[in-house]
Amino acid sequence: MDIYKRIIRIAFPIALQQVIFTSVNFVDTLMIGLLGEVAIASVGLSNQFFFLYNLILFGLVSGGGIFFAQYWGKKDEDGLSRSVALTILSSLLFSIPFFLLSYFAPEMVLRFFSPDIEVIKAGIPYLKVIAFSYPLFAITMVFSFMLRSIGKAHLPLIITIIELSTNIVLNYLLIFGKLGFPVLGIKGAAIGTLIARAIGCIATVFIVYVGKLPGRAYFKHVAELNSKFVKNFFHYALPTLANEFAWSLGFTMYSVVYAHMGTDVIAAQRVMSTIEGFAVSVTFSIANAASVIIGNILGVSKFEEAFETSKKALKLAELISVIAAIIGIVTTFLVVDVFDVSEEVKNMVKVTIVISMGFLPVKIFNGMNVVGFLRAGGDTRFSFLVEASTLWLIGVPLAAVGGLILDLSFPTVYFLTMMEEIIKSIILFFRYRSKKWLRNVLEEA
């Protein structure tokens, strides 16, 4: 029972943080939706590029998180700070190309996602402003992972509440020109998001350094980085980065397929993914919590305890996924009529969310293994091979054939993409049972 309490104690703030984050995305979508389908599509496509950046950055930072959790399990604060320092430096360098593309070549970026000139034109101002938030977001993410690893998951939650509350208020004022502010529309949403992320970054750094929490990184920790430490770090972190890159690029290709199926499909996918985010975020918080707890245990080489913990975490995640799926379907049918979109789009959303929620337990099983278990033990290369191969050899080809060649409906194409989740779950089941992922990565540092 103690392990369930520990999982929930870490998972609950993460889940609540993600629900709040998704809620703000929902409110943003709702506000922008009042401007019409082109506005929803343009912001949705712009956010696809941020989605790509976010997921690859997540891969890099979660690679660092392997070391955060295991160093904290070992109570080695100096090693924790060195890991944080290296992860921050790597994340900032990684942000540079995304900033350059978003600010100096926004039309090229958006054209990759959609051929609709009207949508591209509307999205350019949004993407150029959002570009400045990338490095701020990177710093916030690194410290959020560090805080979770040391059992302070409630602090990123507080920061998220501050950041996203600010985002809602600023978006309302700047999109619609309330309280004397100018009517900026889509660009107003971007400015509100940028200011909110800046506030979140400043608040995070303030809490960590003024509070003198473990994991504070200084220049001395950068100077202490040696070739052996850096090599071992990237031995595990690069496969997680490659994993998320392959995965996010694959999902970006899904968006490209949907965009070429029509603006109504883009709008339906945007609305559906926003609602879907609630269910997914709650259940995936268990995977993040499991990664922290199991990483702490593996840091002191208690392998059997780690495996027993993983079995309990998996049972809890599957139970919650079923509950979340039911709530997701009910919520969709209740709120979809609020959006200013056509009946055809609303019907596509309803059918597709039922498919998505039906496969949620399978998605969560895969997420628990890739993000929660295998990654915690540094089994990152296997995770990369499984995720990349199933997505690019099964999911993306099926989506392309179904959506672009056979001209199938959006729900049908989405159903086809779920076949890669099924195949992936079978492979991951055998890897999980093999226990090959149970290892202490610090023994090689």
UniProtKB/TrEMBL annotation:
Q: Cross-referenced Pfam families, in alphabetical order?
A: MatE
Q: Which UniProt keywords apply?
A: Cell membrane, Membrane, Transmembrane, Transmembrane helix, Transport
Membrane-spanning intervals of the chain: 20-45, 51-72, 84-105, 125-145, 157-177, 189-212, 233-257, 277-298, 319-339, 351-372, 384-406, 412-430
**Compartment(s) where it occurs, according to its Swiss-Prot or TrEMBL record:** Cell membrane
Q: Tell me a Gene Ontology molecular-function term this record carries.
A: xenobiotic transmembrane transporter activity
Instruction: Quote the InterPro entries the UniProt record gives.
Output: MATE_fam, MdtK-like, YsiQ
Query: How is this protein annotated for GO cellular component?
Result: plasma membrane
Q: How does it sit in the membrane?
A: Multi-pass membrane protein
Q: Which PANTHER family match?
A: MULTIDRUG AND TOXIN EFFLUX PROTEIN MATE FAMILY, NA+ DRIVEN MULTIDRUG EFFLUX PUMP
NCBIfam families cross-referenced by the UniProt entry: matE
Protein name, entry field: MATE efflux family protein
Q: Which organism is it from?
A: Petrotoga mobilis (strain DSM 10674 / SJ95)
Q: What is the lineage of its organism?
A: Bacteria, Thermotogati, Thermotogota, Thermotogae, Petrotogales
